[in-house]
Amino acid sequence: MRKKSPTILARRLVEQSRFLKAEQIDLEFSNGERRTHERLRTTGFGAVIMVPMLDEDTVLLVREYATGIESYELGLPKGRLDRDETVAQGADRELKEEIGYGARELHILATLSLSPTYMSAMTHVVLARDLYPERLQGDEPEELEVVPWKLSELHTLLLEPEVSEGRSIAALFIAREFLAGRYRPSA
Amino acid sequence: MRKKSPTILARRLVEQSRFLKAEQIDLEFSNGERRTHERLRTTGFGAVIMVPMLDEDTVLLVREYATGIESYELGLPKGRLDRDETVAQGADRELKEEIGYGARELHILATLSLSPTYMSAMTHVVLARDLYPERLQGDEPEELEVVPWKLSELHTLLLEPEVSEGRSIAALFIAREFLAGRYRPSA
């Protein structure tokens, strides 16, 4: 059962910078309660996070410096889509830039929100299989270290101090459910 | 093996609003490459997301309107910590406000980043067990619908159109690994 969404009475742009727009939204809930909520809208064309499989159980992770938390992060390769790029094209390009592989088979498994209460941002989770070596030059300041991990050993990955990103952990478990045949996304 | 983090040459506050601070950080990587990165710092005292277990296999989810993505979201209860509140205290308070239960047993399973490249935000994942009915009045505009789900059936949850939040999906799988005895967080 899906609940009836509140009525949107008004929207106001309250702040705009190069990367973000902050909006105020006046809502009326189905019980008559009114609230003004704020949310951040990201600019750009969306994001992709890839689950690149070297074989049926080996996923390729990257170790990359993450400025937001000021430490190296071990997780799935990801990036932002360029203008006029499909999700599959963006995923394939980012893989070539970050791990030095293209993928002959790309499959969208899910679309994840980041912080659904406060942000509009969405990230497509793309399973990448049938990999072949091909490198594209990205804008990375240093070559990313590629770290193979076993999907059957995700519980040991959780112990790594450099693993923190919720989206990346979610995407790995979603891929594992998919590859085990327990989950098929609706078309 | 942990990589040596880049040297931070300078930090500048470039934007400040009620909710966020945007910073520029000048970095020098170990290979001598320099970059200026931008990140958002959230204000406040951090966030918690709870995995409330009614019994060994039943987790209590909430259906709540998410203004960021303009739709109802089905996921774990969560909230922001108040000043002078421990993680466990904040988790217990949010549970009483959102699902009408307190918890006699609270256990921090992990701390998740949101978007580690661009944001400083971190969320504690708290397993809540030995629940008892107790309601605190929160600031919710409508009573949240509580939806029990089986941890053993997480693959079916992924099919729900109202399930999108990466952090929530990650926290559920982490809790399942913990409860199955495959994962023990380091103290």
Automatic annotation (TrEMBL), chains A, B:
Keywords: Hydrolase. Gene3D superfamilies: Nucleoside Triphosphate Pyrophosphohydrolase. GO terms for molecular function: bis(5'-nucleosyl)-tetraphosphatase (asymmetrical) activity. InterPro entries: NUDIX_hydrolase-like_dom_sf (IPR015797), NUDIX_hydrolase_CS (IPR020084), NUDIX_hydrolase_dom (IPR000086), Nudix_hydrolase_domain (IPR051325). Its cofactor is Mg(2+). Signal peptide: none annotated. One of its GO terms (biological process) is ATP biosynthetic process. The keyword Hydrolase applies. Residues 40-175 form the Nudix hydrolase domain. Pfam families: NUDIX. NCBIfam families: PRK11762.1. This is ADP-ribose diphosphatase. It comes from Dokdonella immobilis.
